[in-house]
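Forwarding these from the shared drive since the link keeps breaking.
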Amino acid sequence: MVEARSVEVQHLGVVPYQTAMKKMKQLQAKRIEDKIDDTLLILEHPEIVTVGPRARNDGIAPPEDYETQAVDRGGGLTWHGPGQLVAYPIFKWNLEGETSVAAIIERIEGWVIAALQACGITGNRDPRMQGVWVDGKKICSIGLSFLRWTSRHGFTINIDTPAGRVEGIAGCGLNQSTTTCINQLGYSLTHEAILSALLNAMDENLLRRPS
């Protein structure tokens, strides 16, 4: 049996997006050189919409009352703000099965789905877009950037976001209100519960464990 790789988990609280970007780049450079272990950043951002290259290429933008930030991770528009759990895995993806970006995204989706299942919520994949969906609505977005197969950026889980804000963003190929939060769907879920479930499910789904 393969021993799970150790992951340092850092709980950062509320962090401005630009500050987090700088930290991610610094940690990614250290991880590439094996100066640190795989590291998982857990945080929340003040409200901002990040605009990935797919959205820029397709001319998709959020409504004017949203602050925006261009980013170099894959994907389109992603809302960040209160009530959302943000996870940035600064991981070196070279374990068994981590042979392509698609395989890595699928592994993260499976991890989130397993964590939701532990909380009594059925999540699934949807052909419309990568991420995790509940009851036909997208509640988890995934977007990574790689350098030497070491990632930065990551994924978000919308738990109890302000009504109408994430719903006002039309992702690439999606209509407004396709993305929402778990509590708007009628489920009761706390940040503490989903975070605990994620950490507990890491070993089985990612071949990694919190140190």
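-- next protein --
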Amino acid sequence: MYTLIEKLNERKKYLEMMLANISRGLAGSPDGVLRLSTVHEKMRYYQVLSQDGVEKKKYLPASEKELVKKLGQKAYLLELKRKIEIEIDEIENIILRGIIGSGESVFHDLPVQRQCLVTPYMVDNETYAQIWLKRNWIPNEYRKNELIYLTKRGELVRTKAEVLIADTYFDLNIPYIYEMPVEMCNGEIYHIDFTALQKSTRKVVYHEHMGLLDDSGYRRDNMQKLDLYRRSGIYVGKNLILTHETAGSPLNIPLLRDNLRELFC
């Protein structure tokens, strides 16, 4: 069900984008509507204006070809707008009925006292995210003394940049886990900086921040690590986000926020 709802939401988002385009297309449209008639097998075009409930029809000769086209485009956009608004209403009704009547709602509607007694088979996206966040994993014991910076969520991370990244996920209500262990193709366990969940698709996306790119040894080590990630099925363009900074180029948080909002929200 959640996959169907996600597809419907994607369609709704596309239609809403189309409505915005239509509004821009209608801006500056000529007054009135276009009316066509055939006289002696020749098409004639008229601009019909309405004032105080009275229609006034104006013949448009060939010299008014551009006005005819603009009125024709206006009529098309208005009809398209009407049909899109109907489809959006239908999608919203389907989503509402689907959420209320779906199997996912059974666990969601249980009292908390009963939820804790149940291992759910079907859950909605929000409940899935909550369960995902509560999963148990072995924390990273490497240099634990470096965990000194506090995030908004109340956890300790290693750098100020990681605080900014974690807080951006938190502010956008994107579920994330800091340094969750991930097994690589060679059997080694890596603790990737952030593991985030795309709630609408339940897709896991990894996020590695490279904060010392001025250092040649650091760059070399990270290039080797990225090679291992790719061999393990983790790569940019599929399920890996890369951010970086240097002494002269700090982490761009507004850009990161825009990118995360586009990817997850």
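The beta strands are 33-39, 42-51, 54-60, 149-150, 156-157, 176-183, 189-198, 203-210, 240-244. The chain has two domains: 2-102, 136-264.

- D.
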